[in-house]
Design brief:
The complex is a heterodimer of chains A (323) and B (367).
Chain A lengths: L1 H32 L7 H19 L2 H25 L4 H24 L22 H4 L5 H9 L4 H19 L1 H11 L1 H6 L4 H27 L11 H11 L4 H20 L4 E2 L3 E2 L2 H16 L21
Antiparallel strand pairs in A: 1-2
Helix pairs in contact in A: 1-6, 1-7, 1-10, 1-11, 1-12, 2-3, 2-4, 2-10, 2-11, 3-4, 3-10, 7-8, 7-10, 7-12, 8-10, 11-12, 11-13, 12-13
Chain B lengths: L8 H26 L4 H13 L2 H26 L7 H18 L5 H30 L3 H23 L22 H7 L12 H18 L1 H11 L1 H6 L4 H17 L1 H10 L10 H11 L4 H24 L6 H16 L2 H18 L1
Helix pairs in contact in B: 1-15, 2-3, 2-14, 3-8, 3-11, 3-13, 3-14, 4-5, 4-6, 4-11, 4-12, 4-13, 5-6, 5-11, 5-12, 8-9, 8-14, 9-11, 13-14, 13-15
The chains are: A mainly alpha (323), B mainly alpha (367).
């Protein structure tokens, strides 16, 4: 029974840890499916986390915080979009710039405003997103195995966790079933064909990049308003890059992205759980090995030794209209 | 718009980067203004802190050493058409290589141990770049993603090794024991004192000369050797390179290894020169700023030295500035680097297009 409750605790924390990954991963999915490579996910998450914490602190409302986070992330998305789409600049360079700018600006402004080494003051009450209990969670707790699973793993999260699942559903449905989604996919594979059909390539790509901005805004706000109680400098700690890895793992598809992010979140939860634990036969568990697993798996996958991850054909290539 | 923008070489190599840097500083000045400080006063304090004293100059050159190494690393890869974001990871492994040599060969005399340490740094850096290079060349895995992943893997590896394997016995700090005194890289103030010149004590050490030698070496390699020609051809036009019989995948792998070796040499300055032990996060983001350095220096060693000096001034001056003006922390430097990368790398069309029109108009008027 103890193993079961330990497993449920790990699964529960795996869900929590995978949510920011999922938002960022879906953001990357939209952007790259439209042909704009985005390695600036990390920076957008960070900017959103800071703006969300600052706004929530000022107004005492988590929802205002979320709005501010989305706006900050959108600002960086616009910079990236302008560089990548309008200026046909190097998308990798622009992504690196977004990451550095966000890292520098958040810490600088945070320190100038609050004087706490870049941190925002701790948030409490309505300035944070509180967990919500799904209907019947308490009643279901009595059912063996499934009851605690429902009550502890599925229920009891903040609204943003369920929003992440909804975002996955919407992403999958939009890309697969709507005209807009088809055009986004087309513009990432063969922009010239879309252009020939009389549809604006820049408009589609801007739309995708802005959707990515909104999603990163949600992910960042989750970090500072739900997972933690405020902003810490560099609090994203490479989550944007793990999301990138998850995106490749999911082969640029929405539901597999959810799976990959949950897997990586679970690995993170396991490594936290096993910190300092001695296992028979292994000794002290090398938690760094578990933390490194997402990156190692991604490299193996990219190398094509198991399966093959093929990106959208036109991703990373600026589109030049007349030739 | 799709036609290449033609302009004089000096404009392309000097004017465009200069305008990009100017734009970065203007935006940075606005940020300073927004947090309630005077940008001109901040600039004056920054310059005085970096160049006003002998100590400041020494620190500036010490920081510049790091940027030369990582800037050259990014530049060599650029010439081969590769984007090596893995400087951080390669430098981390360079530190490991240097530390292994310094800790395990400590019975050797200094004149042998220090070069071997540097060799270890270069070798480990090169090997860490070999894998992404190989995967790009032979398996088509995108080098940007693999080098990002290798940065993460390198930092996890270093934590593991320092905590579990190489850490100083009996210490909770994740760092190795201090290297033997034979592994000491001479400081500038020590060498100059022996020559009878007294300069302030700074971390500036012989690695600076190594960095300058690497600049010359890279210039020689890229513009004066067969391999350099092959690297530039592969970077400029892979199809032409294949047609000319250049083995593209071998050139790709070799270019990445040279790039990784240069990044690894950062450890000679930081680990062997200053810290004299291996510790966590000694790379301090220098690998990423190397991207800004290479972009601003237009991947030419002379430009890289100039850009490195600029970032050296920013680092040292920024540290001094943070003392005087606690609101302007060293994060300002990261911000300026980000802006420089943005303007010099991704938005250079903003300056290039009007300049191209200007020169075209002048040519028309003249002829």
């Amino acid at each position: 029974m103890e193993e079961l409750s330990a497993a449920i605790a790990v699964f529960d924390s795996g869900v929590r840890l995978s949510v920011p990954l999922l938002f960022a991963c879906l953001a990357g999915l939209w952007s790259e499916r439209s042909g704009v490579v985005d390695i600036g996910l990390e920076g957008k998450l960070l900017a959103a986390a800071f703006a969300a914490a600052a706004a929530a602190h000022a107004t005492g409302s988590a929802w205002t915080g979320l709005g501010a986070g989305v706006l900050a992330s959108l600002g960086f998305a616009l910079v990236h979009g302008f560089a990548a789409i309008a200026q046909r600049g190097n998308q990798i360079v622009s992504g690196v710039a977004v990451n550095m700018l966000a890292a520098g600006l958040t810490a600088l402004v945070g320190n100038a405003w609050y004087g706490q080494g870049g941190r925002t003051p701790a948030l409490e009450g309505a300035a944070r997103f509180e967990p919500i209990t799904l209907p019947g969670a308490e009643a279901a707790r009595g059912i063996p195995a499934l009851g605690p699973l429902y009550a502890d793993v599925l229920s009891g999260h903040t609204v943003l966790v369920y929003a992440a699942v909804l975002a996955t559903l919407l992403t999958a449905a939009t890309l697969k079933r709507t005209r807009f989604g088809l055009r986004i996919r087309a513009v990432g594979e063969n922009p010239a064909a879309v252009d020939t059909a009389g549809v604006s390539v820049p408009a589609l790509r801007y739309a995708a990049v802005l959707i990515a901005g909104v999603l990163c805004g949600f992910g960042g706000a989750y970090l500072s308003l739900a997972q933690a109680a405020g902003f810490l400098p560099q609090m994203t700690a490479g989550k944007g890059f793990i999301a990138l890895a998850a995106l490749i793992f999911a082969k640029w598809r929405a539901w597999p992205a959810l799976g990959a992010c949950f897997l990586f979140g679970l690995l993170d939860a396991i490594s936290i759980r096993l910190q300092g634990v001695s296992m028979p036969g292994i000794g002290l568990v090398p938690v760094q090995a578990i933390q490194a697993l997402p990156y190692a798996l991604t490299v193996v996958l990219l190398a094509g030794f198991i399966g093959r991850a093929i990106p959208p054909r036109a991703s990373g290539l600026p589109y030049v209209k007349e030739r | 718009m799709s036609a290449p923008i033609e302009m004089r070489r000096w404009a392309d190599y000097v004017l465009v980067p200069a305008l990009a840097v100017a734009a970065a500083f203007v935006v940075a000045g606005l940020v300073v203004l927004a947090i309630g400080e005077n940008p001109l006063e901040a600039t004056a304090l920054l310059l005085r802190g970096a160049l006003g004293t002998g100590e400041g100059v020494g620190f500036t050159l010490y920081y510049a050493t790091n940027f030369i190494f990582t800037g050259l690393a990014v530049a060599v890869a650029f010439h081969a058409g590769l984007f090596n974001i893995g400087g951080e990871g390669q430098a981390t492994l360079g530190g490991l290589g240097a530390a292994l040599a310094c800790l395990h060969l400590d019975f050797l005399p200094g004149w042998l141990l220090v070069p071997l340490g540097a060799l270890g740094a270069a070798l480990f850096g090169a090997l860490w770049a070999l894998v992404p290079g190989y995967l790009q060349a032979r398996r088509g895995s995108h080098i940007v993603i693999t080098t990002i992943m290798f940065n993460m893997l390198a930092s996890a590896l270093l934590v593991y090794l320092l905590v579990n394997v190489m850490g100083k016995p009996g210490s909770m700090q994740p760092e190795t024991p201090t290297f033997a005194s034979a592994a000491h890289v001479p400081f500038a103030h020590e060498v100059l004192a022996r020559l009878g010149v007294t300069v302030p004590t700074t971390p500036l050490n012989a690695s600076f000369l190594l960095a300058l030698a690497c600049c010359y070496g890279v210039w020689l390699l890229i513009w004066r050797t067969r391999l350099g020609y092959a690297i530039r051809t592969v970077g400029a036009n892979p199809a032409a390179a294949a047609y000319a019989g250049i083995p593209i995948s071998r050139v790709t792998i070799v270019a990445m290894m040279i790039s990784g070796a240069l990044a690894g040499l950062l450890a000679v300055n930081e680990v062997m020169g200053v810290q004299e032990r291996l510790l966590l996060e000694f790379t301090g983001g220098y690998g990423f700023i190397g991207i800004a350095v290479a972009l601003m220096g237009r991947s030419h060693p002379v430009g890289i030295v100039l850009a490195s000096l600029l970032f050296g001034v920013l680092y040292q001056g920024g540290t001094e500035l943070a003392f005087d003006k606690p609101t302007i922390t060293r994060d300002m430097i990261v911000t300026i680097s980000g802006l420089a990368i943005l303007f010099a790398g991704a938005l250079d069309g903003l300056f290039r297009a009007p300049l191209g029109r200007f020169f075209a108009a002048r040519r028309k008027a003249g002829g």
